[in-house]
Amino acid sequence: MHPIVTPAWLAEHLSDRDLAVFDATLPPVGAVPPADTHARYLAGHIPGAIFFNIEELSDHSTSLPHMLPTPERFSLSMASLGVSDAMSIVVYEQEGMFSAPRAWWMLRTFGVQHVSVLDGGLRAWVEAGLPVQAGPVDRAPAAFHARLNSAAVKDFSAIQQMITEHAQILDARSAGRFTGASPEPRPGLSSGHMPGAVSTPYTDLLEAGRLKPAAKLREYFFSKEVNLEEPITTTCGSGVTAAVVALGLQLAGAKYISLYDGSWSEYAQHPEAVIEKGE
Questions:
Q1: Residues spanned by the domain of 35
Q2: I want to staple 59 with a disulfide (CB 3.0 to 4.6 A). Which of 5, 67, 93, 167 is the partner?
Q3: pLDDT tens, residue by residue, 89-116
Q4: Which of 236, 242, 243, 252 is catalytic?
Q5: 164 catalytic residue (yes or no)
Q6: Helix, strand, coil shares of the chain as percentages rounded to 5?
Q7: Do 248 and 217 meet the contact criterion of CB atoms below 8 Å apart?
Q8: Are both 157 and 136 inside the same structural domain?
């Protein structure tokens, strides 16, 4: 499967027995009051879609947000949702492009071979005149065997090594947070950036809530002097929008992509972290 599928493609394949669809919408950090994305899912979703609750499916043994759970825990969660690792999976969100790529990355990192993001999400589906369904969706339990791709995940020690080696680190946060001119949305964290990191705000990769075409993504990364043939690690505030940049890199043809799971939430509070300000 291509990393991006259209509403027309999904409509054609929606009844396939080996296809699952996830609504992976997270509320934006700092939104007041926080959006109830599960309630919105219940009010209307793509027929047969399951709510992929990124918060619930993350590791709760750490105070860091959205960290990957253990493969065993993820396997149990997916099995209870009625999804097998052999299935093809399409993820979407209710508005724009923000959290669905995080679900895409999680599934791929745990060994699902065929995962795509719906271009334009639920809005594009509705605008295409396609039907929606209300209420919960229940599927019979399935067998899911998560296999962690450790090369796709970086931790603090790996990031420290990358900084020392001047490896490519792309930061998906806003330019203001990167330079230190704007505050972090999580209290107590300094803004700024890792030494040598490149500012690539995830919003730069979007047009009208969708990822830009592959050719435009390549032009953008070229303008940032990113070498798509060399290893690249993405980071953000908590590992969510870093996955938007990872998906953009995948579409642009990057060869070796990984994501710093702890991202700035971990890095900025680590006693050994060096934080730089400015461009």
A1: 4-148
A2: 67
A3: 999 999 999 999 999 999 999 999 999 9
A4: 236
A5: no
A6: 30, 15, 55
A7: yes
A8: no
